[in-house]
Every structure is written in structure tokens, then in C-alpha cells.
């Protein structure tokens, strides 16, 4: 079968690879109908994560059709059209029972090698093996498009997790640092959760224009504090969401938040350390947290928002390609010429 394979830092290629097989009774095989390209994938192919090795199939966002199931799979049968979380979890351990599936000791993150758990081949392929299928997969309901299901598996779940972890109250003011796909979905999630105003902070003119067209205010990093001071009478925002995954943008959040405010980071960080503004955080009683999207936990809630039309994440998808166009889509995403690209292996 064909798949997109990591060859080394900065290099990917479409290659013929061996077909995956059922390895455990709880496995399923899914024929991929659509796979997403995520900002995290840019970190993967750049070699930022030590756990990825040449020859690994990349990608962690997908929807498709079940073509085989192991003997322990009870929720799905061959022919079911399914969506997936971007990582697997056993579904019955202490962490899974709490709804904290990311902390499951059997977690495996598709297409990232051993960077975040057990190694598992990725989903930018014609067929993908899905461990713990009964937990990892879900049926795609009517009213949820393939693109929406892709986004619910990672980017939208991440955006909503940021708002959930930030304990947003109706009417509060939110600043979102980063206007990529996750940042824009954080903004849409905040609006759906009742934010009084959302400010997307982003240097790209096209991404600022996108944010304004979809209900938020927007400012460049140099303009942000002036706008925030006008909105908050100089106090700072209630909640800052950092959606880039860089030490510089996380540090910038501390200059935007009010006293006793909250900062939540959902960017994929690769740096081992960061200089924390300890005295300022203590004096201002700030709260700093991190959040990773958990589609397994959040699917029911987010599916309700999508199928009722309360939230449409698909507005961020602006390119659909086959395998032949994947390398260019990756390059354009890195250059911020694309907001969100998806790959159709059937093209």
C-alpha cells in the first residue's frame, strides 16, 4: 500500500509499504478515506521529537471504513464508517475510567514513533491499524462530515480542551496566541462557550482576516496589548490560550493576562526547559496549565455541537489533496499558505 513516510529531518516521501495486520484481539484495520495534516506533523518531520525514526509512517488524524476486526472488538463490524482519536487508550484502566485517556499507560500516538508512548504507525496511508478499537474509534453519525470528524479527532478536541481546562466563564475575555488551525478552533470554541470577546494574536494578515471573518478580534503581536487594554480597561484578559508551542509565545502570555488570570498552553512543545516568570506569577496569583485534546472524552459533547450546527470546525479546511500533493501541502503549511490540508488516499 502507499503511505507518507518520514525519511529524516525535513524529508518525507510517498512509498510502497507493507500492509498492516491485526496484531492483537482488540485491533481493527481501517481503510483511510481522509487523513489530516497537522501542525504537530510539522514538528515530526522537522525531527523535533526524538522518538521518530526514518521509515515511520506519519499522520494522526483520519476517518475511514473498518475492513477487519480482532476477536475482542465488540462495538464495530466490517463496513462501519468510523472516526478516530489521534491516540489510543485501553478504555478500562484507572486513567481511562477518570476520563483522562491521554494518561493511559497503553497510550500510543499515531505517527509519532515513541515520542508520546508506544510506537504506532501513522494514518497518512491507505490502511491503518487501530489498537483498542472499541475505545479509540467511534461511528460517524449523520450530520458530521468527514472533515468535521477529522478535526474532532485532534484540532477541535484540542481547542475545546483549552477552554475546558481554562474554566472559561460566560462573558470573559480571551486572548489566543497563534492563528493556525488550532488557534482558530480555540477561538470558535471560546465563542461557542460564551466568551465576551476573543482576540486572536497572529502576525499573518491572512490569518488575522480569517479570525475576524469568523467572529473574533485580531491583532499582531505588537498591537495586541493596546487592543486588550481597550477591551479590559488596562487590566488584561481573563484567559490566555497559547496555541503555538514555543517558549517565546508562552512567555508573551504573561504580559497579556490580568491578575489572578489563567494561562493555558495547547501548543506542542518540544523544548526540554523554559524560563518561568516565577516572581510575577506569585505576585499576581496566576494560574498556568497545559492541555492536550482528548477526543475520546470529548466526542459526545463536540458531536452535539457539530450536528446541531452550533459549531462548524470545517471552515478552517482550505486544501484537499491526494498523495501526490502531500509534500507541497506540507511545504505550504510550513509557510502559512495553508490553514488546514487533508489528504484523500483515493485520489
From TrEMBL:
**Essential cofactor(s):** Zn(2+)
Q: Which UniProt keywords apply?
A: Metal-binding, Oxidoreductase, Zinc
Keyword Metal-binding attached? yes
SUPFAM superfamilies xref list: GroES-like (SSF50129), NAD(P)-binding Rossmann-fold domains (SSF51735)
Q: Which residues form the Enoyl reductase (ER) domain?
A: 10-343
One Pfam annotation reads: ADH_N
UniProt-listed SMART domains: PKS_ER
UniProt cross-references to Gene3D superfamilies, sorted A to Z: Medium-chain alcohol dehydrogenases, catalytic domain, NAD(P)-binding Rossmann-like Domain
What the entry lists under PANTHER family is as follows: ZINC-TYPE ALCOHOL DEHYDROGENASE-LIKE
Q: Member of which family?
A: Belongs to the zinc-containing alcohol dehydrogenase family.
What name has this protein been given in UniProt? Alcohol dehydrogenase catalytic domain-containing protein
Amino acid at each position: 500500500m502507499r503511505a507518507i513516510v518520514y525519511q529524516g529531518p525535513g524529508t518525507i516521501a510517498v512509498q510502497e509499504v507493507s500492509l498492516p495486520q491485526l496484531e492483537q484481539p482488540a485491533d481493527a484495520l481501517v481503510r483511510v478515506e481522509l487523513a489530516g495534516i497537522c501542525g504537530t506533523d510539522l514538528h515530526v518531520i522537522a525531527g523535533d521529537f526524538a522518538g521518530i525514526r526514518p521509515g515511520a509512517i506519519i499522520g494522526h488524524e483520519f476517518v475511514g471504513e473498518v475492513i477487519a476486526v480482532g476477536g475482542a472488538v465488540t462495538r464495530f463490524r466490517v463496513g462501519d464508517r468510523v472516526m478516530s482519536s489521534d491516540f489510543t487508550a485501553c478504555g478500562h484502566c484507572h486513567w481511562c475510567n477518570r476520563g483522562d485517556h491521554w494518561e493511559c499507560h497503553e497510550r500510543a500516538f499515531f505517527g509519532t514513533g515513541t515520542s508520546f508512548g508506544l510506537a504506532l504507525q501513522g494514518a497518512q496511508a491507505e490502511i491503518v491499524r487501530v489498537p483498542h478499537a472499541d475505545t479509540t474509534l467511534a461511528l460517524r453519525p449523520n450530520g458530521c462530515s468527514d472533515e468535521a470528524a477529522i478535526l474532532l479527532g485532534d484540532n477541535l478536541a484540542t481547542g475545546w480542551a483549552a477552554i475546558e481546562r481554562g474554566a472559561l466563564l460566560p462573558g470573559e475575555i480571551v486572548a489566543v496566541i497563534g492563528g493556525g488551525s488550532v488557534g482558530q478552533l480555540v477561538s470558535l470554541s471560546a465563542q461557542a462557550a460564551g466568551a465576551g470577546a476573543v482576540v486572536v494574536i497572529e502576525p499573518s494578515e491572512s490569518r488575522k482576516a480569517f479570525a475576524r471573518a469568523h467572529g473574533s478580534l485580531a491583532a499582531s503581536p505588537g498591537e495586541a496589548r493596546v487592543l486588550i487594554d481597550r477591551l479590559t480597561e488596562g487590566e488584561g484578559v481573563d484567559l490566555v490560550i497559547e496555541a503555538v508551542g514555543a517558549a517565546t509565545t508562552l512567555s508573551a502570555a504573561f504580559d497579556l493576562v490580568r491578575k489572578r488570570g489563567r494561562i493555558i498552553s495547547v501548543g506542542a512543545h518540544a523544548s526540554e526547559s523554559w524560563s518561568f516568570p516565577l516572581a510575577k506569577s506569585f505576585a499576581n496569583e496566576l494560574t498556568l496549565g497545559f492541555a492536550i485534546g482528548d477526543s475520546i472524552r470529548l466526542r459526545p459533547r463536540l458531536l452535539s455541537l457539530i450536528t446541531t450546527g452550533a459549531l462548524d470546525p470545517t471552515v478552517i479546511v482550505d486544501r484537499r489533496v491526494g498523495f501526490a500533493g502531500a509534500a507541497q501541502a506540507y511545504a505550504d503549511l510550513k509557510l502559512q499558505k495553508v490553514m488546514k490540508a487533508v489528504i484523500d488516499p483515493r485520489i
